[in-house]
Design goal:
This protein is an alpha+beta fold. It has two helices and six strands; from the N terminus they run βββαβββα. The protein folds into two domains: 1-83, no CATH class; 86-134, no CATH class. It is 27% helix and 33% strand.
């Protein structure tokens, strides 16, 4: 696979009639395109990643002294919008062999519940990322 870097020129989004999936089309300045099909969970994770990247860009711009008024995301009430986070108190997951996904829930310390559904590859990536982020429990 060629690693071609281009500048995003256009973005198109289409939602299936049943609302279970969407198609994203990214077009660069040379009119090369990439089509991506995502289910609801994958699309929501993509949006979350974009939001985190936008917040990091804003943080870095602020740290470097750059400001052009685009660093804050505000809603109609002039409140700053941040990605939702919660302190996870417990979690439970199980494999849904019929669907081929790992399904479960995260429970916050305030009692909020977030349903989670992911393919096994994403579960492996998540597990690795958490293990790499955690301090060593003990030294041998």
């Amino acid at each position: 696979m060629d690693n071609v870097t281009g500048t995003l020129d256009k973005f198109h989004l289409g939602v299936s009639a049943d609302g279970k999936s969407c198609v994203m089309v990214f077009v660069d300045e040379s009119q090369r395109s990439i089509n991506c099909v995502a289910d609801f969970a994958e699309f929501k994770a993509f949006i979350s990643s974009l939001s985190h990247a936008a917040n990091e860009m804003a943080r870095r711009r602020g740290a470097s002294g750059e400001s052009d008024g685009e660093t804050a995301i505000e809603n109609d009430d002039d409140d700053v919008v941040r990605p939702a986070t919660m302190n996870v108190a417990s979690a439970a997951f199980q494999m849904n062999k019929d669907e081929g996904y790992i399904e479960g829930a995260l429970v916050g310390d305030a009692g909020e519940i977030v349903g989670v559904r992911m393919c096994t590859e994403v579960a492996c990536q998540l597990t690795r990322a958490m293990l790499m982020s955690a301090p060593a429990a003990s030294s041998c």
